[in-house]
Amino acid sequence: MPLPKAELHLHIEGTLEPELAFALAARNSVLLPYKDAEELRRAYLFEDLQSFLHLYYGLMAVLNTEDDFTDLADAYLARAAGQGVRHAEIFFDPQAHTARGVALGTVIEGLARALDRSEERHGVSTRLIMCFLRDQSAQSAMETLEAAKPYLGRIAAVGLDSAEVGNPPSKFREVYEAAAALGLRRVAHAGEEGPPAYIREALDILGVERIDHGLRCMEEPELVERLVRERIPLTLCPLSNVRLRAVDTLEEHPLRRMMDAGLLCTVNSDDPAYFGGYVGDTFHAVHEALGLDDERLRELARNSFLASFLEDDEERRARLIAEVEAYDFERPE
Ligand code: ADE
Ligand code: ZN
Fold first, then answer.
1. Domain 5-322 classified CATH 3.40.50.20?
2. How far is the CA of 279 from the centre of ligand 2 (A)?
3. From the CB of residue 136, how many other CB atoms can be counted at a distance below 10 Å?
4. CA-to-CA separations, 132 to 25, 37, 45, 55, 185, in angstroms, rounded
5. What residues are annotated to the active site?
6. Confidence of residue 176 (pLDDT cuts 50, 70, 90)
7. pLDDT tens for each residue of 247-273
């Protein structure tokens, strides 16, 4: 049995494996500009976040019906469960679908079908986090929030993703205020490619509870001190950072230094179909590359549950943390 863990930074569209993309393309009569799954996979050589986003949004053309979203989420949940994931807080990008003429209800109902049966089928509890695309207008984000009102019971939080540089958190002040007024929790990507100031804005202007990535906080010691003092969780994605060239190699990733500084770090897979591994693979990779020992891995797993939005099920959180504490690395079976 793998180490139990929660995954808190996972874009469901980023779990679209090339084989599933081709199967859905055939089902929906969508022509992809690649010969086959192997050729598509060979295109996954990214310069930066923008070059990845181009391919990521393009491939979403195969996601059209409720069934497509159900199959996508089911495949992720099965795979994640196999790597020890017991709780997943899942991002989705509604604007990337509504812009193509896919109704918001199709996306949410399709995902919800897989999520509703996930605990029973896969042993994975779930939450949905609706992300706004920060390279779209604040008005478009507000319209998306408005359109999501019939589905608020299914959405735990709002997030902010897509091209970061030039799109500061402050652009979304009003929409985050509106989301908070609706009782939604708040997270945002900040400090992935963008400067430390974006992390401060996400905290001070958007009122987020967690920072997605937050890698660049390490450039400002006072900011690190604040994140430690306020126990703000960071959802780090080391394999993503290497593939999108935020760091040169995994060996140079600051995760260990961040943990040493007292930051509440979690590790996650971001877009696992594109970045070479799911979250269990990520734990394994940081163990190898950074020499994180068993107790450090246990800390990451414990943090993942501490940082999760399981407040409405504290019993489950306590049970999962107890499993982490009791986990025997010598006898994982
Ligand atoms: N959308 C999907 N993956 C993303 C990432 N790593 N950063 C920003 N937006 C994203
Ligand atoms: Zn992300």
1. no
2. 13
3. 18
4. 26, 29, 25, 18, 14
5. 192
6. very high
7. 999 999 999 999 999 999 999 999 999
Question: How many whole angstroms from 189 Cα to the centroid of ligand 1?
Answer: 8
Closest ligand 1 atom, CA of 237? 6
CB within 5 A of ion ligand 2: which residues? Answer: 270
With the C-alpha atoms ordered 278, 264, 286, 238, is the resulting torsion angle positive or negative? positive
Centre of ligand 1 from the C-alpha of residue 10, in Å: 9
Q: Distance of alpha carbon 150 from its chain centroid, rounded? A: 24
Q: Give, as one character, the DSSP assignment of residue 231.
A: T
Task: Count CB atoms within 10 A of the CB of residue 150.
Answer: 10
Q: What is the pLDDT of residue 331?
A: 80
User: How far apart are alpha carbons 71 and 200 in whole angstroms?
Assistant: 38
Quote the pLDDT of residue 321.
Answer: 98
The tens digit of pLDDT for each residue in 127-175 reads 999 999 999 999 999 999 999 999 999 999 999 999 999 999 999 999 9
Both tokens of 250, joined, read: 């995994």
CA–CA distance from 329 to each of 4, 230, 286, 306, 319 (Å)?
Answer: 11, 31, 16, 21, 18
- Tell the residue nearest (CA) to atom 8 of ligand 1: 162
Token pair for residue 260? Answer: 């040493």
- Looking from the CA of 35 toward its CB, the CA atoms found within 13 Å total 3
- Residue written as token pair 């593939």: 243
Q: Whose CA is nearest to atom 1 of ligand 1?
A: 162
Model confidence at 333: pLDDT above 70: no
